[in-house]
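wait is this the right file?? whatever heres the structure
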């Protein structure tokens, strides 16, 4: 899906790591949420509350997922899942455009 229709966009930006990662929250009519953002090259560790699906639209990064001892390469057009109540680390190699879906329940 290349666009979202009939959604609410929160104007206030989500800014992490001194601007290394930024996003905007998109709320759908059913109450589900996604964030659309950009990550600059760098290493970032995130904690999750909900299960997340990270879709990388463009860029290149390595991710260390919970329970794994190896980095996984991810490039534009690929995605990965992160369990709820966990943490994961990304080594972003090139400017990366992403969409994060929060899966409740």
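ok assuming it is, sequence goes like this
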């Amino acid at each position: 899906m290349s666009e979202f229709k009939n959604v609410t966009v929160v104007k206030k930006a989500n800014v992490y790591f001194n601007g290394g990662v930024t996003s905007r929250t998109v709320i759908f009519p059913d109450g589900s949420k996604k964030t659309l953002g950009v990550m600059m090259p760098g290493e970032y560790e995130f904690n999750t509350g909900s299960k997340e699906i990270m879709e990388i639209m463009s860029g290149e990064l390595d991710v260390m997922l919970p329970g794994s001892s190896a980095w996984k390469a991810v490039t534009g057009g690929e995605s990965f899942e992160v369990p709820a109540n966990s943490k994961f680390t990304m080594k972003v190699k090139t400017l990366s455009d992403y969409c994060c879906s929060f899966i409740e329940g």
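The CA atoms of residues 63 and 72 lie 5 Å apart. so i think its the right one actually
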